[in-house]
DNA sequence: ATAATGCCTTCCGTAACGTCAAGGTCAATG
DNA sequence: CATTGACCTTGACGTTACGGAAGGCATTAT
């Protein structure tokens, strides 16, 4: 049995464009090409196409599928297991997204009082301010008291949407930290991402960023009981882990 | 406070390319452009950027975000609710994928005996064959007994991977049907997709497709107790629903 | 013979940027 | 003061898996 593009397309439920594309990327070549340039597929190609579509339905990329169908000795099971891991990871991220969206909706409906959260946020702001006092002398000399006051005013003037963004960043830091803790390596990509996010978060409170102040704040996370208790809430040793990550991130060691 | 692209990028944790892109698509324009063409952003733009990033973190498309930030009267809550729906839908599809991948892995490990499934598959083959006997006369006249025998041989010769693909298609039909049943409309997109998938599935058993035979088989799904019981397993009336969908799909009414 | 399909290649468009490349601008340094 | 190095600009291509359209032969049906 021989098939032209449209015949095969109808047989398999795909477009002719798709078949031409699969030819182009060397995923499925026709058995032969007629004198007038028509692609002619045989039964072997039909089988191969079904295999391709089978894996495509499982959400695999064509590149991955190409590796699978290229040689029959390829470890399909291993590929499937790795593919499942990716999917499960995607599902986890999607869960996180949905949870965040729902929180935002709840917030917009006023169903969340935010008192608890705000309590700690206010507390954090105070600590950040103290830290600035402690390490901000050079900044003060550089920019004067006015700049500092302006920064403080910035916190007070925060719009609801900036506030939402700050809360969001705090959540992201928490999520990244929890994941990074599993690697146990403060130099890992995830841990460094957490440190970068922490900097982002800080930028809402500081008008000028300095590595030294950031590193100093990180140390304070460990020294201060209240901070440590908060960060270690989910997992013991998170405060230290975050400090180490930030020290590596800033390149400043105490 | 004024910012160039890099300053603002570092402040917000995004690349300069992203800022230029946001300018290009009119999502975030600089406050002004310097005489030498540099983009200069002000505090208003910083705030707007934070709002943009907030919604971006929730997985929204930039196009959707543009609508949200363009005018402050936009119903953000409604947008969030619709966004959540899309995300939940994505999660459902992802769950389906994961389930299918896991089934495939289990199958490759031989953990699924397939006896139950194969029992029904064998049963289906028998019925399909009967159907062909019943409606295949015209085909028989057209192509001769040889073609029919060849088709039957095709079923017997099915490779494990074709078999997997057939099973996959059957699963997809089931999933599409279950969803389509909720609309209650056999002409709905989902129901028609189910009918199209059913045709795909049939192509593994038939060597020649005819609308009349397809429609006839659909009617048999309702008339035959065993078929009806199988399809109505999940939901009462599925067999009738599938028949109606296929009759609409083929344009053949009995 | 002609009209209707069917096939071909080539190119643009999609989302949200990353990554060069070529060239102008600005601040600081020798 | 010239030069370096950091920073800025536009422009263009690459990414995924095709959809769609244009323009031009080939085959088939009437």
UniProtKB/TrEMBL annotation, chains A, B:
Residues 1-71 form the HTH merR-type domain. It comes from the Bacteria. One of its GO terms (molecular function) is DNA binding. Keywords: Activator, DNA-binding, Transcription, Transcription regulation. Pfam families: MerR_1, TipAS. SUPFAM superfamilies: Antibiotic binding domain of TipA-like multidrug resistance regulators, Putative DNA-binding domain. This is DNA-binding transcriptional regulator, MerR family. The keyword Isomerase does not apply.
């Amino acid at each position: 049995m021989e098939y032209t593009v449209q015949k095969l397309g109808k047989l398999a439920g795909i477009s002719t464009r798709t078949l031409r594309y699969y030819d182009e990327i060397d995923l499925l070549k026709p058995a032969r090409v007629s004198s007038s340039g028509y692609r002619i597929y045989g039964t072997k190609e039909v089988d191969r196409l079904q295999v391709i579509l089978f894996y495509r339905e499982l959400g695999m990329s064509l590149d991955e599928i190409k590796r699978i169908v290229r040689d029959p000795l390829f470890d399909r099971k291993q590929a499937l297991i790795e593919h499942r891991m990716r999917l499960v990871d995607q599902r986890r991220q999607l869960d996180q997204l949905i949870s965040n969206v729902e929180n935002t909706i709840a917030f917009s409906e006023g169903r969340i009082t935010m008192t608890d959260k705000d309590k700690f946020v206010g507390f954090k702001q105070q600590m950040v301010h103290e830290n600035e006092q402690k390490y901000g002398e050079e900044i003060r000399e550089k920019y004067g008291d006015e700049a500092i006051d302006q920064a403080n005013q910035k916190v007070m003037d925060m719009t609801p949407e900036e506030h939402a963004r700050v809360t969001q960043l705090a959540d992201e830091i928490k999520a990244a930290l929890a994941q990074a803790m599993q690697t146990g390596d403060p130099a890992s990509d995830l841990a460094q991402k957490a440190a970068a996010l922490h900097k982002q978060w800080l930028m809402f409170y500081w008008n000028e960023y300095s590595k030294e102040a950031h590193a100093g704040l990180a140390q304070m996370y460990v020294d201060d009981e209240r901070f440590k208790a908060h960060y270690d809430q989910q997992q013991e040793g998170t405060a230290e882990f975050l400090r180490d990550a930030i020290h590596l991130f800033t390149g400043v060691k105490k």
